[in-house]
Amino acid sequence: xxxxxxxxxxxxxxxxxxxxxxxxxxxxxxxxxxxxxxxxxxxxxxxxxxxxxxxxxxxxxxxxxxxxxxxxxxxxxxxxxxxxxxxxxxxxxxxxxxxxxxxxxxxxxxxxxxxxxxxxxxxxxxxxxxxxxxxxxxxxxxxxxxxxxxxxxxxxxxxxxxxxxxxxxxxxxxxxxxxxxxxxxxxxxxxxxxxxxxxxxxxxxxxxxxxxxxxxxxxxxxxxxxxxxxxxxxxxxxxxxxxxxxxxxxxxxxxxxxxxxxxxxxxxxxxxxxxxxxxxxxxxxxxxxxxxxxxxxxxxxxxxxxxxxxxxxxxxxxxxxxxxxxxxxxxxxxxxxxxxxxxxxxxxxxxxxxxxxxxxxxxxxxxxxxxxxxxxxxxxxxxxxxxxxxxxxxxxxxxxxxxxxxxxxxxxxxxxxxxxxxxxxxxxxxxxxxxxxxxxxxxxxxxxxxxxxxxxxxxxxxxxxxxxxxxxxxxxxxxxxxxxxxxxxxxxxxxxxxxxxxxxxxxxxxxxxxxxxxxxxxxxxxxxxxxxxxxxxxxxxxxxxxxxxxxxxxxxxxxxxxxxxxxxxxxxxxxxxxxxxxxxxxxxxxxxxxxxxxxxxxxxxxxxxxxxxxxxxxxxxxxxxxxxxxxxxxxxxxxxxxxxxxxxxxxxxxxxxxxxxxxxxxxxxxxxxxxxxxxxxxxxxxxxxxxxxxxxxxxxxxxxxxxxxxxxxxxxxxxxxxxxxxxxxxxxxxxxxxxxxxxxxx
Length: 746
What we know:
The protein is α/β, with parallel strands linked by helices. It contains 22 helices and 30 strands. Strand 11, helix 10 and strand 12 (295-299) form a beta-alpha-beta unit. Helix 1 crosses helix 13 (356-365) and helix 7 (216-224) crosses helix 12.
């Protein structure tokens, strides 16, 4: 079980937002099998008792807090800590040691008073194991350095959103920035597609945080006392620890149709039924945005003002000002103005879909299960728009310019109606959207009776680094074949303006960013690149081959190297290119077909010229071999007779069944192919002809998988190792009947 340590605080000065969003994240991590432990300092308004029913909480000793009056910026945030960062880190390590905790998978820091100094001390103090913990920083300020592996800032700053942490985090730090990653309870994602647009103003929600130290709740209620607003129903939410709760209670009693709610597990229900919110510019901004609730906003803290101004400028809310200056009269005027308009104010459309917490959990723990594909629906428009604009995702169908909302909306409406477009959304097991793959079927340019499909894919930032691109391709190909039988070939051109942009022909897609893959760049020798320059590659495999399940991994590796890849299943579909890879292809090419490519590469599992022919690895396993030679060579018109480029060996332990040794075979095949591309000039220059006396393996048939019931299993174990439970299962004849065995290892 992965242990997650979370350092955050709440107090009458700090408010409750940091703890509440960390609680949301902790719940998400717990659902994925992780164990969350909170480190919180005891102080008035600390919310420790709120956390204890669900999580382990280690309380740091209470410190005499410095007076916050008159402080601002870093001085204010440092005073919230109650001690130096070094003292705080030492106390954290001390309480962890007393609890028997000396390691962790992740440390989460959500505190304005902490920076790289505290982070370094904590990482060093918990790095005694084989691998030290990783660090997630949750921040809103972008005003100090961090040693983070992962950083979350869920705030909106328009075009500056993705540039705020430049030079503040290490280059390898993954940054999840903007409301797309806002930490909301799972109920928000469920309600997001269900809440209709507001068309009239009849119910108002008032919420300025659990504490509301500036007593803005009373100002809002005073504004709502106007007789012209008497028809409005009002819901008021305020924490029990607020110093102004009694005054609010008295105002609520004076106004008809007004309810003061006790602290609620979630505001989602009140937000969903409200037509307008009057509230602060904190974390609740994203809850309102998710459910498209128009809002009048007051920035109650200095850090809320910049992103509230950006949201106001972008038309996502109406900012009234900061908490010190906004008056009841100003709120009243804004409300009266909204009553005369056809819609009750500005709503934050397309900012967040409520899946931010699961996306952050994916970035930390991976997908925790297989991904799946679903057909895109109308509600996915904002999601595709976000991925199109994200500089690290950038859907290639829109090239590289800024995408106007009207243009994207028109494209989206046409996409939903287009019978030649298949648009699929990749989701985790719990339904969290993390990517997309799109197929655009076109008329054929080679054969009149064929069709072609341009393919486009992208993965959310949270899903980078987990090898999911190959899974996305594999699932997309299956869906395409189900939608359009027979599956189309495909063709497109390369976006030359981007080194990592490449078209995949027939059965693949665009890859948008190098971070999707883990392969290294092609090697250099003596300052000179030995790799083959980006080229046109054709991949030819038999339609029913087992290797097709693995080939998307090779496709993504070739895309990463900048190549254009076309995947076909018949020699008749070949067209001119640079390199043809004949992998698990049971047909010989004639001279005319070979001439279509400069190089035609074949991988064969034997020490050629010995072992030419069919199923060489199967035959050698039957013979008891523990080391299988594998050869990459140039195809010629004669069977398995061309010059050899590369060779290596596949090591076997003697127990591997077919599914296990095929993994080794596929891996060795791809290693040879990629080595040929990465060291192209060296390898081609060292090619050598085949020497020796050829030998040949015959073709195998299903009857070759038949057991002899008179012999022991031990004597026939190698035969059991090569049978395929699906294509040619093990069988035996007994008393005139045929029996089929399904073999699996424990």
